[in-house]
């Protein structure tokens, strides 16, 4: 049962991590980190991402413009761009390491210690990738809430609201952390050591010898 449980858990962990990494990359390049609905013109919706700002028109589709300068961005967007790129890179590196450490992979079957280290490093990279994906989206969400309820801004001024990319980023971070936890659980699972095997065999031999002596006396 354990022989089937461990590979299935490893495969589930890397698949969940792969889903989280794809969602993390999608979050990085989606322009819907913030949404702005104009009451004066309900046919237009403004969106802002890490790389560009867009205007969604009901008749003309979407028109986007890249940001001219990185330094001109608000602090939360500058740091979020760096963290999301780092999250994508660490997630990709984690996929490569944990992929070579899977038990179902025939490469390196005689080097189980090395494969377990690869799984461990891959799981830790997934944790790092998940955390660095959750932090920027949470920071942008926090700043959006602060600006939305800022009493110093007149009520007639439109307020930014949560965009779809924030929810995708939270889901990506959760999947990455969950996938890394599943991989590390397979490493921390109980193993059968050779000493315990020898002890069980010796105990079984003693029982057989005891039964043999009893049959002789009978």
Automatic annotation (TrEMBL):
**Superkingdom per UniProt:** Eukaryota
Q: Which organism is it from?
A: Strigops habroptila (Kakapo)
What is the stated purpose of this protein? Claudins function as major constituents of the tight junction complexes that regulate the permeability of epithelia.
Q: Which GO terms describe its molecular function?
A: structural molecule activity
Membrane topology per record? Multi-pass membrane protein
Where, per UniProt, does this protein localize? Cell junction, Tight junction; Cell membrane
What's this protein's family per the entry?
A: Belongs to the claudin family.
Q: Cellular component per GO? A: bicellular tight junction; plasma membrane
Where does it primarily localize? other
- The secretion signal range is none
Lineage runs: Eukaryota, Metazoa, Chordata, Craniata, Vertebrata
InterPro entries, per the entry = Claudin (IPR006187), Claudin_CS (IPR017974), PMP22/EMP/MP20/Claudin (IPR004031)
This protein's name = Claudin
Q: Name one Pfam family in it.
A: PMP22_Claudin
Keywords, ordered alphabetically: Cell junction, Cell membrane, Membrane, Tight junction, Transmembrane, Transmembrane helix
Q: Which residues cross the membrane?
A: 12-30, 79-97, 118-142, 162-183
């Amino acid at each position: 049962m354990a022989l089937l449980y461990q590979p299935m858990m490893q495969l589930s962990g890397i698949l969940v991590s792969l889903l989280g990494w794809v969602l993390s990359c999608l979050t990085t390049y989606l322009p819907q980190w913030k949404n702005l609905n104009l009451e004066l013109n309900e046919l237009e919706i403004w969106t802002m991402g890490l790389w560009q700002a867009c205007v969604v028109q009901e008749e003309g589709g979407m028109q986007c413009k890249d940001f001219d300068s990185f330094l001109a961005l608000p602090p939360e967007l500058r740091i979020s761009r760096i963290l999301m790129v780092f999250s994508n890179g660490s997630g990709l590196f984690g996929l490569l390491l944990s992929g070579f450490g899977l038990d179902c992979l025939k490469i390196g079957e005689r080097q189980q210690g090395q494969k377990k280290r690869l799984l461990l490093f891959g799981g830790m990279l997934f944790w790092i990738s998940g955390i660095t994906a959750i932090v920027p989206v949470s920071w942008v969400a926090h700043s959006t809430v602060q600006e939305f309820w800022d009493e110093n801004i007149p009520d007639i001024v439109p307020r930014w609201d949560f965009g779809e990319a924030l929810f995708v980023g939270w889901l990506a971070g959760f999947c990455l952390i969950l996938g890394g936890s599943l991989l590390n659980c397979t490493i921390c699972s109980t193993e059968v050591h050779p000493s315990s095997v020898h002890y069980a065999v010796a105990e079984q031999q003693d029982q057989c010898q005891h039964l043999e002596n009893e049959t002789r006396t009978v």
